[in-house]
Each structure stands twice: as structure tokens, then as C-alpha cells.
């Protein structure tokens, strides 16, 4: 009985560390290619591990990865600021293989610019 729970603990720790490692793999974003996008928020999520907005611009729609909700709240970007229909400008880096995804470094919405990293 004790042996089974020890193995379960080891497997659980490995799973958690693997998930954390995979989650923080920012190498998927091209840091050599900064981009600025402006558009209208069509959808938003204030969820862990990262918030997001779906930003509709002139020619296309982008999925923008934001910071964790706790960081956004602490830096003055409440959930309400990401309301559908609000205009936003984001600066960040595009994903290397997902052509419509951007990781935001900062966002300007409601006349306020918030650093996300």
C-alpha cells in the first residue's frame, strides 16, 4: 500500500514538472520579429495560465496570448478592460508555426498601456 502511494507521488510530480516546462516554452514565438496590431476585441478570456483576446484587425483575426490574470490585475488591466467591442493595440511576437497567434508584451486598451511581461 505504501509503495503504491510513493509511486503515485513520483508520477504526479513528474507530470506537474513536465506540464510546467511545456507551458513555459516561449521559444515557439519569434522574438526577432516584433509586431504591433490594432483592432477590435471580439472575444476575451481572463483564464489561467494566460488570458487571451481574439483581435479583429483590418485584414485578419488574431489570437493574442496575454499574461496570467493575477499579473494583469496587479498591473491595472482588469477583466472588464478586455470587453468585447473595445479597441486594443498589442505589441508582441508572432508564433513561429501558428500564423494567427501573437504573444503580447504590452497592450493598450481604454487609453491605458499595460506591460504584460
Can you offer a commentary on this structure?
The protein has 117 residues and is α+β, with helices and mostly antiparallel strands. Helix content is 24%, strand content 36%. It has a 5-stranded mixed beta barrel with strand order 1-2-3-5-4. A hairpin with a 6-residue loop joins β1 and β2. The protein is globular, with a radius of gyration of 17 Å.
Write the layout of secondary structure elements.
Layout: H1 2-23, E1 35-45, E2 52-56, E3 61-65, H2 69-74, E4 87-94, E5 101-109, E6 112-115
Parallel strand pairs: 3-5
Antiparallel strand pairs: 1-2, 1-4, 2-3, 4-5, 5-6
What are the defining features of this structure?
117 residues, alpha+beta
Largest sheet: 5 strands, mixed, barrel
Q: Note poorly predicted spans.
A: 10-22
Radius of gyration in whole Å, from Cα?
A: 17 Å
**Average pLDDT rating:** 86
Give a brief rundown of this model.
It contains two helices and six strands; from the N terminus they run αβββαβββ. The chain has helices at 2-23, 69-74, and strands spanning 35-45, 52-56, 61-65, 87-94, 101-109, 112-115.
